[in-house]
Amino acid sequence: MHQRDQMTAGLLRAGDPTERNYDVAQMLVKYRSGTAHASMSDHHRLFYSQQPYVIIAAVDDQGFPWPALLGGSPGFIHSPDAHVLRIERMPPEDDPVRLALSKDAVVGILGIDMQSLKHYHITGKIFQTTPGGMAVSVTLASTARAPHMSSYTCGRGEHANGGSSATTEYSEELDESAIALISKADSFFAARYVDAATRLVHVSFRKEHVGFVSVDGNMLEISGFDDASRAVGIGNISLDSRVGFLFVDFHSGHTLQIVGRLLKGDQDARINTTSGRWTLAVERVVRRGAALAGT
């Protein structure tokens, strides 16, 4: 059996992935149709080498996927061959994702050009770690572009703060500072995963308008979702509702990591996919001030 067919068959035997995670399912559809691959194209590899930022996500020992932003001078991400991506940067020691980035851990990676919003997805497995970086063996790689989204103007990765002087605050609920950052956000990154014959971790980017994410107590309400936009949203997760969000203020350099559980709709056995609104029950919050200096 062809490698593509073997992987797809194994995932389907473990359960219909569309019932678990819409975005991961879309990645599998691309893989089966030949638009996503088990290796990176030359353009894919070049794209990563030119980026000053990358979003990486891994699952902690409680089953929550944490997304984190890593920055550096262009070239800190490089690819020696089509099956390997090396990242010469690790999150700070106090970042929740750091402990999850161990050898054999499955990770999701998103490289995104904030000008064109073209982005490349990778899911893979770490096969080597050092104090200053990691090497990832690629499982799936795909690319996309969201032409309806407006671009950003943001700083370069050489200004990224490694975390030594950044202030970090931890909480189990949203405080005033976190709410203020969310209230002015027009975008976020989301991480989730599916466990089938193999684990796949996926990171996506969602951009709408300021205020599309609102706060109600310790809940996040996200509006603007419909059937057409789910593929670049937070996905349709029914068997495991755990999800991680990352908000980045590219002007102040502050970041906000949130993990929690998506709530099911009253009339739907799955998470509600018809109302255009999603609700996240927040469980853990990490706010990092000046995580990206000079942006």
Describe this structure in words.
The protein is mainly β. The chain has one domain (3-289): Electron Transport, Fmn-binding Protein, Chain A (Pnp Oxidase, Chain A, Roll). Helices cover 13% and strands 39% of the residues. It is built from four helices and 15 strands. Strands 8, 9, 10, 11, 12, 13, 14 and 15 form an eight-stranded antiparallel beta sheet that branches. It has a seven-stranded antiparallel beta sheet with strand order 2-1-5-6-7-4-3. The N and C termini lie far apart (49 Å). Residues 1-22, 151-164, 226-238 and 266-274 have low confidence and may be disordered.
Write the layout of secondary structure elements.
Layout: H1 3-13, H2 22-33, H3 42-49, E1 53-59, E2 65-71, E3 77-81, E4 84-87, E5 106-112, E6 118-130, E7 133-145, E8 167-171, H4 176-183, E9 187-195, E10 199-207, E11 213-216, E12 219-223, E13 242-248, E14 255-262, E15 277-289
CATH class equals Mainly Beta
Helix percent reads 10-25%
Number of domains: 1
Quaternary state, please? single chain
- Major pleated sheet: 8 strands, antiparallel
- The chain-level mean pLDDT equals 77
Count of helix runs: 4
Total strands: the figure is: 15
As residue ranges, the low-confidence spans are 1-22, 151-164, 226-238, 266-274
What radius of gyration results from the CA coordinates?
18 Å
SSE order, one letter for each helix or strand: HHHEEEEEEEEHEEEEEEE
- CATH level 4 superfamily: Electron Transport, Fmn-binding Protein, Chain A
Large-scale geometry: globular
Structural class: mainly beta
